[in-house]
Amino acid sequence: MGFTTGITTNDIIFGGDKRLEDSIDYIMEHYKPEAIFVYSTCVTAMVGDDIDMTCKLGGEKHGVPVVPVHAPGFVGGKNLGSRIAGEAVLEHLIGTKEPEKMTPYDINLIGDYNVTGDMWQYLPIFEKIGIRVLSSMSGDGRVGDIRGAHRAKLNVIVCAKSLVTLTRKMEERYGIPWISVSFYGKRDTTFAIREIVTALGDPELIARAEKIIAEEETKLEAKLLPYRKLFAGKKAVLNTGGNKAWSIASGLQDLGIEVVATSIRKSTEDDIAKVRDYLGPDGVLMKAPASEQSKIIDERGAHILLAGGRSLYTAIKKQISFIDVNQEKKVSYGGYNGLLNLAEDLKYAFGNPVFANVSQKAPWEA
Asked: 120 and 145, same structural domain?
């Protein structure tokens, strides 16, 4: 739940600390949350309100963590905001409570936002193997679990390099090793599971994981056969950026679709290296996809564009199929079953006549 202090001109002149204090009291009285996160905005950050002290006093008064997050809009982009939030969680939440129980195979999932339930696709596989997710940040996360995250045996970054600073600092402070993986596509899901069990280091766990991987891949391959025939010879342009530049590309390739170009906007150097590895020397890495994608679709003969909603009009103009693969997507593409969801969406996109018809002239104009 979100609230605002609603500061006035007087608060800007004389300080908004009292209004923030009253807001914390109101929230605790009416909602009794396990923690409160206080985000500074551009106005309060420029005025210089001491939200740290107000949060400290509020936490002591009510007996719950009150976490200040110094990420006003002017400090930078989305990745920096995520990093700042991760460090606030490390300073004020992690290590403040002991877990009720622990297992030898406890892990933290870091950076999986779980917008469409990606995490729920591979949690059942973890449970079969015997791996327990102690805490998740931020998708499906719970404050009580995050407070005990310092007892995990391994931190697993899921497609979110902006939180790598958090994992490095947790390794320094608590000795927790970390790995970075993706659960998009068959190859990457299998690779991720193997990386996790190898890092945990138990031979029995590794053997159990290999057995379950074999079972899951066999079931998946049988279900993918009709899709592979349907997608033979298809080419795709991917405009999503960040880690999805390579993770979704991997899933498309697992389905037999050639990815001829992908956006590397918002991608880290590690992401770009992975993209080059996946797409090979002939793949185009778009630095300015909005201006490049239309030309590349023509040059490479792409059949489908996978991007955010704003790129729909490019697909319409080029009369090719389109799928929205950003946060607005309706189903999960994570894990083995998520690859089937992606295949199903691609099937409907290729079979949808609207993309070929919508930009044609009206009958009376022909």
From this structure: yes
**CA-angle at 328, arms to 327 and 332, nearest 5°:** 70
CA pair distance 76, 157, nearest whole angstrom: 22
In a shared domain, residues 166 and 264 = no
pTM of this structure: 0.91
**Residue 67, beta-bridge partner list:** 37
What pLDDT is stored for residue 85 in this prediction? 92
Task: Give the least confident one: 97-111, 199-213, 308-322.
Answer: 308-322
For residue 181, which amino acid is it? Answer: V
> Is 263 a member of any domain?
yes
Last residue of a domain, one of 59, 75, 91: 75
Interval 162-201: pLDDT, tens: 799 999 999 999 999 999 999 999 999 999 999 999 999 9
Question: Dihedral of CA 44/49/52/58: which sign?
Answer: negative
Give yes or no: residues 168 and 229 share one domain.
no
Q: Which amino acid is at 95?
A: G
Degrees, nearest 5: CA angle 140-144-149: 85
Q: What is the pLDDT of residues 262-314, one digit of tens each?
A: 999 878 888 899 999 999 999 999 999 989 999 999 999 999 999 988 899 99
Element (H, E) at 128: helix 118-129
Domain count of the chain? 3
Same domain? For 207 and 276 the reply is no
Confidence of residue 328 (pLDDT cuts 50, 70, 90): low
Domain extent at residue 68? 9-75
The amino acid sitting at 327 is Q
Last residue of a domain, one of 167, 190, 216: 216
DSSP assignment of 295-331 equals: HHHHHHT-SEEEE-GGGHHHHHHHT-EEEE-STT-SS
Q: Which CA distances in Å does 230 have to 189, 221, 225, 347?
A: 23, 14, 9, 8
